[in-house]
Amino acid sequence: MGKQSIKVAALDVKDLIKDLNKAYCDEWLAYYSWWYMARIVTGPGYEDMSEFLEKIAKEEEEHADELANRIIELGGLPIANPMEIEKNANAPYPKPPKETNDYKGIIKTVTEAEAGAIDVYNKLAAKTQGKDHATYQLVCHILSEEIKHEEMFEDLLD
User: 0.85 cut: is pTM over it?
Assistant: First the structure.
């Protein structure tokens, strides 16, 4: 982060980096869970469920990349050790259901994790609004995608 950016930021940048790293860890856990479920899902119409999960997994990976870039721009480093990801996340790993054809279980796993992500990004938006415009815009962008993800999977229940 440039000197002027730090000067005008009306928040603790180290604390913000910590919060962004937690969200970064959340994104990697979601990515892996969605990616895994996309590969192992079975049952009627599994191709559609697999396609939904794959699409969202790619977006979660993009979120992790965007967060990593912002963490670096702020002078920090994203979590480097994969063994530290769950420990540093806001929530535990969104564990896939045991049955590969348990669509309701998959949808529950995804919607609960997305609801948690919506809460995380809403808090980050409130924290950065009017204080760090670049981070605010990033978290609002990710927040809107997380809302879309939750809606996509809630619609599958209808």
Answer: yes
